[in-house]
Amino acid sequence: MIITIIIIDAGLKFPDLDMSGVDYIVSDLSYLLQKRKNIKALFLTYGHEDHIGGIPYLLKQLPTPIWVSANILTKTYAKP
């Protein structure tokens, strides 16, 4: 059986108040690193940091194509 992995978002988590000195929390990528041959794409659903903030950390270890709709790009980067 061939397993295909599509990653949905690559955000980061903001620390709780009791986590002094921590700026943000990035997901553990160990499972994805083990399955790197099966990863086909990163699909972004929303343009806020809790959905896209971890992309630099993901791409350093797992270069992969990124899929995003024009609607998300427009809402994220458009100036009023």
Description:
The chain is of the alpha/beta class and 80 residues long. The relative contact order is 0.26. It has helices spanning 30-34, 49-52, 55-61, 70-77; strands spanning 5-8, 12-13, 25-26, 39-43, 66-67. It is flat. Helices cover 30% and strands 19% of the residues. A three-stranded parallel beta sheet has the order 1-4-5, with no helix packed on it. The chain has a two-stranded antiparallel sheet with strand order 2-3. It contains four helices and five strands. The protein has one domain (5-77).
Count, helices: 4
Question: Poorly predicted ranges (pLDDT <50, ≥5 residues)?
Answer: none
Main β-sheet: number of strands, strand sense, barrel status? Answer: 3 strands, parallel
Q: Indicate the overall shape.
A: flat
User: What is the topology, as strand order, of the major beta sheet?
Assistant: 1-4-5
Summing up helix and strand content along with how strands pair, one would put the structural category as alpha/beta
Number of strands: 5
The number of domains is: 1
Order of helices and strands: EEEHEHHEH
Kindly provide the radius of gyration, computed on alpha-carbon positions and rounded to a whole number of angstroms: 14 Å
Distance between the termini: 49 Å
Helix content: 25-40%
